[in-house]
Design a protein that fits this description.
This protein is an alpha/beta fold and 303 residues long. The protein has a single domain, classed as TIM Barrel (Alpha-Beta Barrel), CATH 3.20.20.150. 35% of the residues lie in helices and 17% in strands. The strands form three sheets. Strands 1-2-3-4-6-8-9-12 form an eight-stranded parallel beta barrel, surrounded by five helices. It has a two-stranded antiparallel ribbon with strand order 5-7. Strands 10-11 form a two-stranded antiparallel sheet. Helix 1 crosses helix 2 (39-45) and helix 3 (85-102) runs parallel beside helix 5 (142-164). It starts with a strand and ends in a 13-residue tail after the last helix.
Length: 303
């Protein structure tokens, strides 16, 4: 049975306590901690959260003490600057300790945005294949190459430490040309660290075509068999894409839920945003509707 969770962010202790209480009171089965959660907010959460109520948390949480509320994180998963890796790894290890403290079994690695001109951070429907010119540009990009190397270095060290805490590290594959990792890069990491506690976590606003369960005619088969990489998906963020790059509640934006719902069935965890307390009941209602699995066209879906 899929665990129904809600994502929590907090800049202040009052916000942290109010949001966490609202999530649990609404009947959710778990909480996902997302960036930002500042130090004071984190300390306020610790005595409030039941053990193992946190089902996953993002890397680099809680935010470092010097980070001002409202400012962006100084750390990137796939940094372009090798000199920043030491500080990044130090903060990453603090997240593993924090996860152990609250009983969270999963660490989520956020996507990294590339600065390469011509590549896009914008929403792309999951049915739209990457543009060939963008693929060529990514393949030739020195920045993308450096960031892929940084991701592999981070994973090699993070997985070693995660094993001590019995944690699973999850990558989120993206379908946006200006983000890393895209699907093929995420699956390459899975092959590189085969046998390690490395999994995938989906995001419905950046769901790659490869993760739809309906195969495309005349598309080459992926090197990794479908049943292998589907089994590594630990959960999904269920949210929607509004105008420009605004995130919104599921069902209120451009995500084609009727096309992607079959790809979300039977995942261990679903998480909706808890941006507005009055929307928490709507989130549970949305997930209840999503459980009603759509009919599968005969002969198209894998077993």
């Amino acid at each position: 049975m899929t665990i129904q969770a809600a994502s929590l962010t907090a800049l202040t202790p009052d916000e942290a306590v109010a949001t966490a209480s609202a999530i649990l009171d609404a009947g959710y089965e778990g909480i996902i901690l997302e960036n930002p959660i500042h130090q004071d907010a984190w300390r306020a959460l610790l005595p409030l959260l039941p053990r193992e109520s946190v089902k996953a948390m993002q890397l680099f949480l809680p935010c470092p003490r010097g980070q001002q509320p409202g400012s962006t994180s100084p750390y990137e998963v796939a940094t372009e600057n090798p000199r920043s890796r030491e500080g990044m790894l130090r903060q990453a290890r603090k997240t593993l300790e924090a996860a152990d403290q609250v009983g969270s079994p999963i660490i989520l690695l956020p996507v990294t945005q590339l600065n390469e001109p011509g590549l896009s951070w914008n929403y792309r429907p999951p049915t739209v294949a990457p543009d060939p010119s963008e693929q060529q540009q990514r393949a030739a990009s020195e920045e993308a190459h450096q960031r892929r190397d940084s991701l592999l270095i981070l994973l090699s060290q993070l997985l070693e430490h995660a094993e001590r805490y019995a944690l699973t590290i999850c990558l989120t594959p993206s379908n946006r040309s200006g983000e890393l990792p895209i699907a093929e890069e995420a699956l390459a990491c899975m092959r590189e660290f085969e046998g390690a506690a490395l999994g995938l976590w989906l995001d419905t606003t950046r769901l790659p075509t490869e993760f739809l369960r309906v195969p495309r005619i005349a598309e080459p088969k992926m090197e990794t068999r479908e049943e292998d990489w589907l089994a590594t998906v630990q959960g999904a963020f269920l949210h929607d894409q509004g105008p420009v790059r605004d995130s919104c509640a599921p069902g209120q934006g451009n995500v084609p839920w009727e096309l992607i719902s079959s790809a979300l069935q039977n995942l261990p965890i679903w998480s909706v945003p808890a941006n507005h307390y009055d929307a928490l009941a709507d989130g549970l209602h949305f997930m209840a509707g999503l459980r009603e699995k759509p009919e599968e066209p005969d002969g198209l879906l894998g077993s």
